[in-house]
């Protein structure tokens, strides 16, 4: 007589219950993983600002002044226009000294100098890029000969739109009341309220958005302070600083921002602070930011100082 041996196994219902439990656990786990990843990305963005701040202070220690926010080649070589931005001047402070060493500060150095642009073609510098940014990694616009530059996530703070040291021109308002503005040569001693109370660099890692929170792409992938020309682009061919800088003319200040709108502003309109961001001093070109001015600096409000 044969004896039947019962074999242990899951029933269909038990298997479905187990699958359902696993699905619920995965559903609970995924948001937690996403939050951890986003927290890590935001921490990296904050650390980038810290590294940029250290590099700017290192430049000051070596040169007794902060780098110009954006400049033409003229102040450096006597000729030329559309020079380089502050992001070029501090490259050796963020472990990119090989690029800085071969940089030519002449011949539209931040714009169409083939020697320079070829050095940064399709190059991503991690310190200049927030990993959680929705901006394209590279600008679809080519400066010259098909070379492409990355979208940087950071902008220099040149001052407030209602500051007395601001010029108006064909490209809007350009302030000289901050630290990084066209042809700026600000010293630490010029900052009357101290560096911890004065904005230096802000994060600009999201799209300009309309009143429906939809990205305003423009013709070059995104609208940021670096414009379509890249993080290396400086300013026009003049040695004057705001308010004299290209007053009434092409007063674009690439890779620098004059604060005007509040953080995460949706849609355009002038809701600028009503009180001046600064109190002009008799000799200082760099003046302290107030809490009202601080609300205008960047997408996230985190700034290096």
Can you describe this structure?
This protein has 305 residues and is of the alpha+beta class. It has one domain (40-305). It is built from 6 helices and 6 strands. It has helices at residues 12-63, 74-77, 86-89, 97-101, 114-119, 291-294; strands spanning 154-160, 166-169, 172-175, 201-203, 256-259, 303-304. The chain is elongated. It starts with 11 loop residues before the first helix and ends with a strand.
Keywords, separated by commas or semicolons:
single chain; 305 residues; alpha+beta; two-stranded antiparallel ribbon; 6 strands; disordered C terminus
Biggest beta sheet summary:
4 strands, mixed
* Radius of gyration based on Cα positions: 25 Å
The low-confidence parts are 270-305
User: What class do helices, strands and sheet pairing give?
Assistant: alpha+beta
Note the gap between the termini. 90 Å
Assess the beta-strand content as a share of residues: 5-15%
| Helix share bin | 10-25%
Helix/strand order, N-terminal first: HHHHHEEEEEHE
Domains (count): 1
Shape: elongated
Total strand segments? 6
> How do the strands of the widest beta sheet line up side by side?
5-1-4-6
Number of helices: 6
Mean pLDDT: 76
Summarize the structure in short.
The protein has 305 residues and is an alpha+beta fold. It has helices at 12-63, 74-77, 86-89, 97-101, 114-119, 291-294; strands spanning 154-160, 166-169, 172-175, 201-203, 256-259, 303-304.
């Amino acid at each position: 007589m044969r004896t039947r041996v019962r074999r242990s196994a899951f029933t269909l219902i038990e298997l479905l219950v187990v699958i359902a439990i696993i699905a619920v656990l995965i559903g609970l786990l995924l948001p937690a993983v996403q939050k951890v990843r986003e927290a890590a990305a935001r921490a990296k963005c904050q650390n980038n600002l810290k590294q940029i701040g250290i590099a700017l202070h290192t430049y000051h220690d070596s040169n007794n002044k902060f780098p110009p926010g954006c400049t033409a080649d003229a102040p450096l070589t006597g000729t030329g226009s559309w020079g380089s931005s502050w992001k070029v001047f501090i490259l050796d402070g963020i472990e990119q000294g090989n690029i800085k060493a071969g940089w030519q500060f002449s011949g539209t150095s931040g714009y169409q100098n083939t020697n320079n642009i070829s050095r940064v073609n399709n190059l991503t510098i991690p310190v200049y890029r927030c990993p959680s940014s929705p901006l394209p990694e590279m600008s679809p616009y080519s400066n010259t000969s098909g070379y492409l530059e990355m979208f940087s996530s950071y902008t220099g703070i040149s001052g407030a739109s209602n500051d007395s040291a601001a010029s108006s021109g064909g490209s809007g308002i350009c302030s000289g009341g901050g630290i990084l503005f066209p042809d700026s040569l600000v010293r630490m001693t010029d900052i009357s309220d101290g560096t911890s109370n004065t904005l230096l660099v802000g994060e600009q890692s999201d799209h300009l958005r309309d009143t429906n929170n939809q990205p305003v792409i423009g013709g070059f992938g995104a609208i940021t302070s670096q414009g379509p020309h890249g993080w290396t682009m400086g300013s026009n061919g003049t040695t004057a600083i705001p308010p004299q800088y290209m007053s009434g003319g092409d007063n674009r200040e690439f890779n620098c921002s004059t604060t005007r709108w509040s953080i995460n502003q949706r849609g355009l309109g002038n809701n600028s602070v009503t009180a001046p961001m600064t109190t002009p001093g008799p000799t200082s070109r760099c003046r302290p930011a107030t809490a009202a001015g601080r609300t205008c600096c960047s997408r996230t409000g985190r700034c290096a100082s």
